[in-house]
Amino acid sequence: MLKQLREQLDSGQTTATKLTTEYLTQIKEKNPALNAYVLVTEELALQQATAADKLIQAGKQSLFTGIPYAAKDIYCVKDIETTACSNILRGYKPPYTATVINRLTGAVLLGKTNADEFAMGSSTENSCFGVTKNPADITRVAGGSSGGSAAAVAASLAPFAFGSDTGGSIRQPASFCGVVGMRPTYGLVPRYGVIPMASSFDTVGPLTESVEDLAMIMETIAGPDQHDSNVPENLVVNYTENLEQPISQLKIGLAKQYLEIDGLNPAVKKIVHDLVNQLSKQGAEVIEVDMPHTSYAMPSYYILVPSEVSSNLARFDGIRYGFRSNNTTDLLSVYMNSRGEGFGAEAKRRIMLGTYALSSGYYDAYYLKAMKVRSLVRQDFTEAFKKVDVLMTPPCPGTAFVIGANSQDPLQMYLEDVYTIPPSLAGVPALVVPAGSVDNLPVGVQIIGPQWSESKLLRVGRMVEQVIY
Predict the structure, then answer these.
(1) How far apart are CA 1 and CA 230, in angstroms?
(2) How far does Cα 250 stand from its chain's mean position?
(3) What pTM, to 2 d.p., does this model score?
(4) Nearest to residue 342, comparing CAs of 307, 316, 372?
(5) What is the per-residue pLDDT across 411-448, written as a single tens digit (0 to 9) for each?
(6) What residues make up the domain containing 65?
(7) Catalytic machinery residues
(8) CA–CA distance from 218 to each of 66, 87, 234, 276, 364 (Å)?
(9) Which value, to the nearest 10 degrees, does the dihedral of the CA atoms of residues 447, 453, 456, 457 take?
(10) In total, how many domains does the chain have?
(11) Domain of 179: which CATH number?
C-alpha cells in the first residue's frame, strides 16, 4: 500500500492534495458511524499536502512526503488539541511534537484517533468522546486502547495510523479489526511527546494494512533520540531489505499454558493451530515450550501498571494545564474536584489501585512482589527463546465483543489482554497479523520474539501473510 502510494506520488499519477482530499472525503462519509476520529485536522492536512506537492515537484521528497496518516490522541502535535481522550485535558494544545511524528518528514496528518482515556482499556469505551465501532460490525467494539487507529486503517480512513501498546493496546485492536500491528521491543521507538500511562511498559508503533507497510514505518521511526534515554545508540533497523526472504529452519514455539487458558474460543484456537500446521508443511519445526508463570502475569500487571498510573497522572491537578473545576473554595478542593470531575471511572479505578499498592505497609506485599513475578515471566521468555525463534499465540481469547458486554465487569475486560500482557511484562516485541475470521469477525495471530528481533518477526509475519493470502 505505502510503496504503491509512493510510486503514484512520484510518478505524478496522483498528488498529495488529491490523495488527502480523497481520505478527508472518506472520513466525512464514514466517521460519523464509526467514531474512529475525534479530531479531523482538515486545514492542517491540506496545508501539509500543498507543501508536499511542492517538494515532490522539486524532487526533494522523502519516503513519506505526501502520504496521509492518523495519530492516536495521545501523540502531541504542536498547537493541535491533544486530550488523551480525557475531559481533564480538553482544550490542551501542546507546545511541541512527538519525535515519531517529526520523523515522518513531509507526511500529512489527517487527524487524531479515538482511544480509551489515557490508553486505559480494551474497548475504547472509556473515551470521553464515546466508543469506536468495529468496521466489520458496528455493534461491536474495535478494541482498545488504540481502537480508533485500528478502525481508521481497517475502514480505509487512513493508510496507516499510530497507536500505543502498554499491555496490548495495538495488538488487540489489530486482531479485532483485521489489520497489522506491532508492539516493538521496549525502548526501540522514542516515546517523547506521547502522553504516558505506565512508563516502564509503554511502547509506540503503527497499525497498517500489511507487514511491508509496517516495516517501512518502523524503519523510519525507530532509533536513538536525545529526548528518550531508553533508546540504545547502536540500533540496526533495516527491516525492509530481507522482508521477502523466508527463514530456513524456523522454529515455532507453542506454549501449552497459552492454549489452555479458560475462555479461549475453540475457533480462534483452531485458526492458530491451522496456521502453524501450514508453516510446518513449509519446513518450520513446531516445538512445545513451557511458560510456567503465565497465570501470574495478569495479576502482576494490574498491580504494577496502576502503580505507575497513580504516579504519572498525579501531574493533572487543575493547576498547570488542562481542566480546572469551577466548584472550588480552597487549594485542596481545586485538586479534588478537578481530578474528580476530569477523570473517568477507569482512570479513577487505576489511580486508587495504584495508590493503595504503593502506600506505606502495602508496598512490599503488592508492588515488590509483583516486580519479582515480572522477573519470573521475563525468565520464561528467555528460556523459551533458547529453544525457538518465535512463539505463536492467539492475540485475544475471542473476536470483537458486543459494545457494552464487558463494561460493567472490569475484571472480564482486563481478561481480554490475557495473551498480550506477558510479552509486555517481559519487554519483548510482538506482532499481530490477520490470520482468518470467525463468524465474519477478524482474528489475528500473535508472533512473539526475543528483544530486538523485529526484523525476524516481520519476516515471519510476511510468511504468515503469504500462507493466508
Answers:
(1) 31
(2) 27
(3) 0.96
(4) 316
(5) 889 989 999 999 999 999 999 999 999 999 999 999 99
(6) 2-221
(7) 72, 145, 169
(8) 18, 32, 16, 26, 39
(9) 20
(10) 1
(11) 3.90.1300.10
